[in-house]
Amino acid sequence: MLVKSEIIELKTHEPIAIYNITDYISKLLEVTGVKNGHALVFSRHTTTALAINEYEERLLEDIKVHLNKLAPKDGKYLHNDLHLRIVPPDEPINAHSHLMAMMLNNSEYIPIIDGKLALGTWQSVLFVELDGPRDRTVLIQLCGET
Fold this sequence. Notes:
- Pfam families: YjbQ.
- By secondary structure, the chain is an alpha+beta fold.
- It has three helices and eight strands.
- The chain has helices at residues 22-32, 57-70, 95-102; strands at 2-11, 17-20, 36-43, 48-53, 107-113, 116-117, 124-129, 135-145.
- The strands form two sheets. Strands 1-8-3-5-6 form a five-stranded antiparallel β-sheet, with helices on one face.
């Protein structure tokens, strides 16, 4: 069984943004030649998330609005009391981002069948930035038979 791990780097551009990373995973799948197995996609940050959903512009805006309602940036959060804890000088006020991430997933597990991700017709693998803009990384691990 082949196991291939790769880290992809993303530069995000907005405080909350959603990026379709399906093509990155599919290209890695082609290079490795895994025919049957699974892909693990793992976000390496506490203020980002992953989701499998439709990548449609109006839905993406709905998702952002919904997340902002669940954890508004201007809410009162203990994590934002920076003066009460030891933090680096560039520590952001970002409790809302952590809370949003907790409501989503930090990983997705996708079957690979006949050399392709077994996603449904409208499904895409989405990387969700919740505290941008930043430089981010995502671990992709492909396991299976070639």
